[in-house]
Amino acid sequence: MRLSGNIIFLSIVIIIYLALGIADFNLMKLSIFNFGKLFLKILPILCVVFVLIFLSNLFLKPKKIAKHFGKGSGILSWIITIVGGIISMGSAYIWYIFLKDLKQKEMKTSLIVAFLYSRAVKIPLLPMMIYYFGYPLTIILTVYMIIFSIINGLVVEKIIESP
Amino acid sequence: MNFPQIKQALLKTLNNFKQSLPILMGVLLLIALINTLIPKNIYAKIFTGNAFIDPFIGALMGSVFTGNPITSYIIGGELLKQGISLFAIVAFILSWVTVGVVQLPMEIQTLGKKFAITRNIISFITAIIISVLAVFTLRLIQ
Known about the structure:
heterodimer; A: mainly alpha; 7 helices; B: mainly alpha
């Protein structure tokens, strides 16, 4: 059976804990206690995130989202692309394949970049962000990320299309 | 909407969490360990509060790491509690999701070398710019 990178990572951390336990048992106990405190603190937020991701998986399908963006080049296509990026879920790998297909169908480079950048805004994870960084910074960051998804799109397009 | 659709969405979500859980647990265990072992003044020596160097280091760290953004928020939030400057934290969480050194080969393969490299470099620079802008904006409104 092939172990995934995630399991290997967790195993290494557990081995570090065991080594620490051999060297200084009390320090290991204190670290486990701190881990428990940390885990309990974020557990309610994780539950909210779970519900939001579940709702996204229920209502938003990649194929349906991809169908709507990349059309035209007006303000509406920017809005559709950025909203698409924000509500898109799942691994970036899936989206690279969709975007490759859309690129072949002549989707603009600027829109592809804007889509990938606006994926940084994760609505289901906003409760976690608010918990750690507060409402003001979360709102400021979200606004900047949306603005810069457009700027980045235009800059990358200009660089790529320059001779 | 019917029962199979709800079941499918629930299974997909559980699968997402199942995949992220080992990393999440590992990161939490590491944070707890670091919090216990490393004195807080060490961070102050690396992150001095400089508006240009701190976000650069933060963006470098975020570019190399990958995974669910939840992990970056947890690491960022805990580092913030250790007194690391907000410049570094914002650049870190931004580059975590927008720059992908690990995913770069896949991005090159699907979207082209010039596109992937340019996009990642611009996203790296943007993470630094946004972190400076966001922190100054926050200071302005508070």
